[in-house]
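Target protein
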Amino acid sequence: MKFFPVAKLLCLTLVLVVSGASLNAFAAPHYPLQIYFVDVEGGQATLFVTPSQHSLLIDTGWPGHEGRDADRIAAAAKAAGISRIDYVLLTHYHTDHTGGVPQLVAKIPVGTFIDHGPNRETESASTVQVYDEYQKVLAEGHYGHIVAKPGDLLPIPELKARVISADGNLIAQPLPGAGAANSFCGPATDVQADQTENARSLGVILSFGKLKILDLGDLTRDKEQELMCPVNKLGHIDLLVVSHHGFSQSSSPALVDALSPRVAIMDNGATKGGSPSVWDVVTKAPGLEDLWQLHYSEEGGPTHNVAERQIANVQGTDAGNYLKVTVLENGRFEVFNSRNGATKAYPPK
């Protein structure tokens, strides 16, 4: 058996270590953005966790249900490796979006709340109650508080979050690269103005590397018309959070077709959202590769639901399964279905 002299062995080891270090410098890991679409049964709770574990939660789901929604959000946070949520953005003050605030803060620490300002739907007892409970949380805790306005850039490290709509107001000028005439607007029609908190939704476009994600909360068609016609102020996006859980009050062709999303996520419930008319608009949008749903839509039935592989909670179940999107800075992303492990990757475009 042949042995290396000690000096030669040390020299060889040093060469290997240095060579390995050089190779690793060129093969540095690309850490992802994680997005959890938490199942809150037809409400909304979407958790963003950046590579350095800064976090943003959009909406908190419902109150009651023995803390079900807060538990599911906390479980997503744990899976993402975080023990607190830095920012909670409330799109508007309806029960399915803001009702879960008191239970959430009792379950996991929160840093700062972001909202559109005062509740405007004062004739709705449930909305007033939800808003009042939220105000109590703000008053009793040591939380930061941001009232966002269109055009604002939210202070979330590693995630560029631009406010598009807030309190019924919209960005006045197109975003960089946008502003082309919108051929999907069609003939001018009178769209009845929505008087609820839906039209006040705090909507954001989020950019991570080369990927763009749009979440407009429950913004309604009248506001979509203002935002997208006669010119498209947003340009094209990669990932669309289908507005209003897929209800027909939102997601007009003037918005969805002009955005030309590659992938859409619908945070519907079994009996809430997923309207066939919206399903048709989304699935026929130019350039769409896939729609994924949090639930099988009873309203949609056999003709207006995607393949079971792309549904987190199938017909007749209430298992709290989630969808997860993982995003790299080069624009590559993949969608994961926690129910069945189905995963699909989408290369950079």
